UniProtKB/TrEMBL annotation:
<dbReference type="GO" id="GO:0008168">
    <property type="term" value="F:methyltransferase activity"/>
</dbReference>
<protein>
    <submittedName>
        <fullName>Methylase</fullName>
    </submittedName>
</protein>
<dbReference type="Pfam" id="PF13649">
    <property type="entry name" value="Methyltransf_25"/>
</dbReference>
<dbReference type="InterPro" id="IPR050508">
    <property type="entry name" value="Methyltransf_Superfamily"/>
</dbReference>
<dbReference type="InterPro" id="IPR041698">
    <property type="entry name" value="Methyltransf_25"/>
</dbReference>
<feature type="domain" description="Methyltransferase">
    <location>
        <begin position="21"/>
        <end position="109"/>
    </location>
</feature>
<keyword id="KW-0489">Methyltransferase</keyword>
<dbReference type="GO" id="GO:0032259">
    <property type="term" value="P:methylation"/>
</dbReference>
<dbReference type="InterPro" id="IPR029063">
    <property type="entry name" value="SAM-dependent_MTases_sf"/>
</dbReference>
<keyword id="KW-0808">Transferase</keyword>
Amino acid sequence: MTTALDLIAEAFAPLPGRRLLDIGCGAGALARALAARGATVAGLDPSATALAQARASLPEADLRPGAAEALPWADGTFDGAVFVNSLHHVPGPGMGAALREAARVTGPGRGIVVVEPLAEGSFFRAMRRIEDETAIRAEAAAALAAFAADGVVAIERDTVVDRVETFADLDAFLARVTAGDPGRAAAARADRAAIGEDVRAQAARGEGGFVLRQPLRVVVLRVAG
């Protein structure tokens, strides 16, 4: 099964020596995967806690605190930039600015990959009671469409892949979706029984526990010029 990581690696191939920026890098899972394939990775995230985790496993990487709307790197620093499940977390009016910043720090002819979860799938429905992201995911899609329409980038590829996750039990699912988010954690505690019913209703049974699917839209962009 093709994954979002497969498509990211393909978009920037060959990876050895590529300078790539992970915008909204969190604890560094994607950055580690790209570095393992030979890329030179930098990252940015507003969370000090997440950055500390990323630095622990990638001490050589250039990982900085900050906002996607104002990237602290010079024009043309990178061969490519990636947003993975992060664009919709940028405050609404800043989504377009974040995309323009990605184009600035890459530059003409270089790539940007945006991976965004769709407001559908069993994973989305299972967590909707904890946080319903329908509106902000639609807002991110609209910002991406407006960015492409401005002519700053051309869309090279636009496809959907499934992220498939297996959880041993409800606690494992709740740990996954509330990690580092006090608001989600509070919602989970307040409505645990109903959330458990949602998970059981949406999940397929698989080896190792409950299987949930999240469709991800993967858009590969090329900066114009």
